Amino acid sequence: MTQIDPLAIRQGDRRALSRALTLVENNHPGSREIQAALFPHSGKAHLIGITGAPGTGKSTLVNQLAKAFRQQEDQKIAPKVAIIAVDPTSPFSGGALLGDRIRMHDLAGDKGIFIRSMASRGALGGLAHSTAAFVTVLDGAGFDLILIETVGAGQAEVDIARLAHTVVVVEAPGLGDDIQAIKAGILEIADILVVNKSDRPEAENTARALQAMLDMAHGGGSLSSAGKHMLRGNAGTKTIDNQPEHHWKPSIHLVTATNGDGINQLAADIKRHRIYLQETGLWQVKEENRLRRDLDALIKDMLLLQWQQKIDKAWFDAVLSDVIARKRTPIEAAEALI
Amino acid sequence: MTQIDPLAIRQGDRRALSRALTLVENNHPGSREIQAALFPHSGKAHLIGITGAPGTGKSTLVNQLAKAFRQQEDQKIAPKVAIIAVDPTSPFSGGALLGDRIRMHDLAGDKGIFIRSMASRGALGGLAHSTAAFVTVLDGAGFDLILIETVGAGQAEVDIARLAHTVVVVEAPGLGDDIQAIKAGILEIADILVVNKSDRPEAENTARALQAMLDMAHGGGSLSSAGKHMLRGNAGTKTIDNQPEHHWKPSIHLVTATNGDGINQLAADIKRHRIYLQETGLWQVKEENRLRRDLDALIKDMLLLQWQQKIDKAWFDAVLSDVIARKRTPIEAAEALI
Predict the structure, then answer these.
(1) Residue A3 gets which letter from DSSP?
(2) What are the respective helix, strand and coil percentages of chain A, to the nearest 5?
(3) Could you tell me what percent of chain B has a pLDDT over 70?
(4) CB contact under 8 A, B291 and A179
């Protein structure tokens, strides 16, 4: 049952692929072999992280982007697109599965798009490693674009989005009024910003608030205040220049995912970011950083496991009791134990 | 400069307290001594975690709650209240500081309320440990209630909220329509649910959606569908029964933080949760779990540090190169290195 042929996965067998991902998600020993077989073939896919608070319409946006990537005019062969919906807050993945079904219905019929949610926790290296392992399998399976959608906009989600080459941060109108809503930390990792639901009247205020924060954080972004019609959907999202850049300026896109407004321009800008990364050598730097972080997380978890197997339980319990009795601080206790 | 007298902190010297928290935030060696001096006096404060997505109006709610706790009628002496605003996504804490200033203005003049934001990252044990250390200092300083507000509703925020005895999850109307918005995982850790901005028409739909999810997750909550007027602000938030419970049923509160509607009932319910925890012995269980988790996080980080000091750098780099060349998977590399 756990015998899955990596070659079948590479040849496009979706059932074998699904089963392989399930092994990875369950941290099944058999998943190691599959990862080892596919890893040498990976490293080609463009990883796109999409993050944003609940209610910003991320899932609809991701679906529309997947369709847009399939249909871009400047390509002879439609790329294969995978979507990983990472849902760290749902240990049962019930919600994710419901979401999956609705989404699959929307994208059904296109064999070039593969969707999978991931709610695994507690494995070695944590959720970030599980996501990295999913990426290895999908990348090795030949997907050209992998959209990693994270639910929520907290630190764990940001860390996962950081796995990607290109980080897209999604906001919705109205949040601009909320001091807490637009966080400098999230803006710092954004390569591209999206104000979704741009048919709402407050959309441009939100874009302007984002622009003001970008100006502070990056010393300038690419949304011009020249005229509001320039910012919108089919009228063309304004991106400052077309010559190869040595410093990426995050652009702000006003889109309406529900009707597709602005999606093609967003897809084109994501592609432009890939070219920028490749021309500047940053692609390789990001790849190396990503693998390095994954390795560090695994080492950390393995060290703890190893230590737990060696430690004298009675002694550990005695020290823990001291902490609970507030005789030693946790940091003093940790130092004593190691 | 780093000489801070723990006794001054215990006697209510706010400047000494602020300086001590800065040492903790910066992971300054001097902070250890202060923590060690205050730790034996800690363990009395009621820790209340308040989490929810951006835009739900958490900060206003937390301010109002702090005021309500100060003024509850059934108490002879007003309790001292501390607010920790944890902001993991803002490494510069610029946003948090701006927020602080606005909030301090709102609560100015009440010396029984202390507000502090925390944006520290990267210290041993991570943000959760930094928050725990803040709690130790504030608890040891004699604060009776500590409100831990986390920005965002991601996994890191949930983990921090979990530090608390009582977890309050805040939602806003309208998010109920979004499959992604209300996560089973967040509901599972909620002791009390709040629908803020309940003056909006969709508020009761959101409450009903939450109730439906609670029924699934817990097998029943305390919001009755008897009549909508029962649910609202001054008319009284419905909580099912008053006898001591052996199983806590999360209640749903419709409040409007901006005008104070429903805040007193919410404050009373939080107090009721404390009594429930103490009567069932769960208070002590939660204390122990919290200290245990903090100890585990510290041990994990210290093990990595120790290992990094011992490892042969050239060998590590060689193995890392293999990973980057995709000759070994990260998991194979981690196993080889340890």
Answers:
(1) -
(2) 55, 15, 35
(3) 76
(4) no
The residue of chain B nearest to residue A130, with distances taken between CA atoms, is B331
Query: What b/e readout covers A230-256, taking b as 16+ CB neighbours within 10 angstroms?
Result: ebbbeeebbbeeeeebeebbbbbbbbb
Q: Do B55 and A58 touch (CB under 8 A)?
A: no
Q: In angstroms, what separates the C-alpha of B147 from chain A's closest C-alpha?
A: 17
Report chain A residues whose CB lies below 8 A from the CB of B130: none
- Report d(CA B134, CA B233) in Å as an integer: 33
Q: Considering only the beta carbons, identify the residue of B59, B288, B331 that sits closest to A298.
A: B331
Using the beta-carbon criterion (under 8 Å), do A153 and B152 form an inter-chain contact? yes
A231-260, pLDDT tens digit by residue?
444 333 444 344 445 688 899 999 999 999
Beta strands in B145-249 (DSSP E): 145-150, 166-171, 192-195
Work out how many CB contacts closer than 8 A connect A with B. Answer: 242
CA-based nearest residue to B196, from B51, B87, B70 = B51
Set of chain B residues whose Cβ sits within 8 Å of the Cβ of A333: 295, 298
CB contact under 8 A, B55 and A174: yes
pLDDT, tens digit, 9 for 90 and up, residues B162-185: 789 999 988 888 754 443 344 556
CA distance A153 to chain B (A): 6
Query: Which residue matches tokens 């602080």?
Result: B100
Domains of chain A are 42-282 (3.40.50.300), 297-337 (no CATH)
The DSSP secondary structure of A89-158, one letter per residue, reads T-TT-HHHHHHHHHHHHHHTT-TTEEEEEE---SSTTHHHHHHHHHHHHHHHTT-SEEEEEEEB-SHHHH
Q: How far apart are CA B94 and CA B107, in angstroms?
A: 20
Q: From the list B55, B132, B334, which residue is nearest A302 (CB)?
A: B334
Dump pLDDT digits (tens) for A93-107: 334 444 555 666 667
Q: Which residues contact B108 (CB under 8 A, 6 or more apart)?
A: none
Q: What are the beta bridge partners of residue A118?
A: A86
Residues B114 and B83 sit within 8 Å (Cβ to Cβ): yes
Q: How far apart are the first and last CA of chain B?
A: 42
Verdict on whether the full-model pTM lies above 0.95: no
Average pLDDT of span B233-253: 59
List pLDDT tens digits, range B129-156: 889 999 999 999 999 999 999 866 566 6
The pLDDT score that the predictor gives to residue A167 is 92
Cβ pair B36, B4 in contact under 8 A = no
Contact B103, B302 (CB under 8 A): no
DSSP assignment of B7-57? HHHHTT-HHHHHHHHHHHHTT-THHHHHHHHHGGG-S-SEEEEEEE-TTS-
> What's the pLDDT band for B126 if we cut at 50, 70, 90?
confident
Helix, strand, or coil (residue B158): helix
* Confidence class for position A152, pLDDT limits 50, 70, 90: low
Band of the pLDDT at B94, cuts 50, 70, 90?
A: very low
Is-contact A168 A257, C-beta < 8 A?
Answer: no
Lowest mean pLDDT among A113-122, A169-178, B187-196: A169-178
From B21's Cα to the closest Cα of chain A, the distance in A is 16
Chain B residues whose CB is inside 8 A of the A153 CB are: 53-54, 89, 152, 154
